[in-house]
Amino acid sequence: MSQRRFIGQLGANESIDEVFLVSQKQLRPNRAGNLYLQVRLSDRTGTVTGMMWNANDRVYRRFEDGDYVRVEGKSQFYNGALQIIISEIEPVHGEVDETDFVAVSPRDAGQMRGRVVELLQSMEEPWLRELADSFFQDESFVARFESAPAGIKLHHAYRGGLLEHVCSLLELADRVVGLYPFVDRDLLLMGAFLHDLGKIEELTYERDLAYSDEGQLVGHILQGAALLREHVRRVERQRDAEFPRELRMRLEHMIASHHGTLEFGSPRVPMTPEAVALHFLDNLDAKLHAVQQMLGSEVNPDSSWTPYEPSMGRKLYRGPESKTS
Q: Is the pTM of this model over 0.85?
């Protein structure tokens, strides 16, 4: 059998005969009323949209979301994004190598978790240290925190991606606060830890990466705020005292405002120094991770330029040294 060709290695106009993990299947009518099948195909290197023209209900019912399917077709770029035009799609009934389909963080989870705990334990505010302890004393939370992605398409979209993103963000925050003494280090560190924790409930990640029903209806910002309140109550019970209202309010504001603007899903814009810093550091880590992924793509490796990436609104210059001789 020929060596597997992963999504991250595909270019335009290639013949495809590979196994993928399938999700988000939809049977849609086009403008003429004819049905076509749209699916999301993935392996450990990424995802791609698959389109099958002149489909029908029989084809739609051949497989379910979360199945492995063998796909025959041809790759092409459409509006700057790679897609596969499918000629045949069938469920795979034999064994597959699941390591071909599960993308995981390249960094060691134990080391990242240890560094996150170390930075949080360096906070001077006892209430915040106890709040951090409450999360890591919860074995169910820790398991999900270590497994969850930070997204399903954009940055850190793989198992362990959330932990990696949070660890990097804490490191960024720790380096930046020394330059801006008016930014409260403890608040910024705790906000960096908390800001995306709702994604452990917003997303599903046992096999394919997707949104849970609650994630689509509620979203990780509200889910994250609810997680914070749950652990605030735990700390209050342990201390038999009320958590400082001002402290809780500032933490909730950082969760609510970390997307930065209303049009990007923030219920509030950042209105404290720590919230402003968190938004821009979060965006920095997400964007530079996306840049790293684009530069490392195996599509057109002999070109000085990456393919156009719609989510970034640009292509990137690799430089002449990327060209093969």
A: no
